[in-house]
Amino acid sequence: MVSYMISASSGRPVTKSQLAYETIKARILDGSYGPGYRLVLDQIGRELDVSAVPVREALRRLEAEELIQFERNVGARVVAIDPTAYRHAMETVAIVEGAATGLAAPLLTPEAVARARALNDRMRRSLAEFDPLTFTALNAEFHEVLFSACPNPNLVDLVRRCWTRLAAVRDSTFSSVPGRAPASVEEHERLLVLIEGGGDPAEVERFARGHRLATLEAYLARQR
Fold first, then answer.
1. Which of the listed residues 67, 71, 128, 175 has the most CB atoms within 10 Å of its CB?
2. Contact 220, 90 (CB under 8 A)
3. How far apart are CA 144 and CA 149, in angstroms?
4. Contact between residue 13 and residue 48 where contact means Cβ atoms under 8 Å apart
């Protein structure tokens, strides 16, 4: 018999395995479990008041998502992403999110565009007392509004999975290159104007992809 618990994030009944998965993944993405952090089954099980079995099932799911890896004689550790892997992840996001945003553009309602602009305005105001993590969260929400209207659900799912993979880096790009933030806000505004003006989807795609790649280039230039 499968027993259920209540998820803290969604408030819905979930299996013990799902609860363990959601909890561990959230801690990886918010940085509580940093790169190289060792995930001990018994310890996590005690914290969640579950046996080691659902924790092990959760870790296998996270391994498939490449958020953790198993090492011989060590167990599960949070994956540490090197700069090359980060570049590959950002390039992938630029391509798939650009495509999704282009397809979504003709379908965006005035209300959706207004919501995106409101988020961008919050990002602009936040520049005065810059917090890279808050800025990054608003940035993610802004782009979610735009690409989620894409009529291809497989592409939307792919974008979100790429975002999850990128978030596992747990190092906001804007922490390393805060000077990129004002330019990003202005590019957001130009993207919204392009969409509102009925810009060709291919042009919207190119602009959205270039916007992402500009952030990546700023990061790589700082690393060099």
1. 67
2. no
3. 9
4. no
How far, in Å, CA of 150 to CA of 108, rounded? 9
Q: Between the CA atoms of 157, 60, 80 and 220, what dihedral angle is there, to the nearest 10 degrees?
A: -20
Whether residue 75 contacts residue 40, with contact meaning beta carbons closer than 8 Å, is answered with: yes
3-state secondary structure 99-161: HHHHHHHHHCCHHHHHHHHHHHHHHHHHHHHCCHHHHHHHHHHHHHHHHCCCCCHHHHHHHHH
The three-point CA angle 34-169-65 to 5° equals 90
**Contacts of 153 by beta carbon, 8 Å cutoff, 6+ apart:** none
The CA distances from residue 73 to 29, 64, 80, in Å, are: 25, 20, 18
- 134-182: pLDDT as tens digits: 888 899 999 999 999 999 999 999 999 888 777 765 556 666 677 889 9
First to last CA, the chain: 56
Structure tokens at 94: 């630029």
What pLDDT shows up at residue 13?
62
* pLDDT tens track for 102-135: 999 999 999 999 999 999 999 999 999 988 878 8
Backbone angles phi, psi at 109, to 5 degrees: -80, 160
pLDDT value at 2 more than 50: no
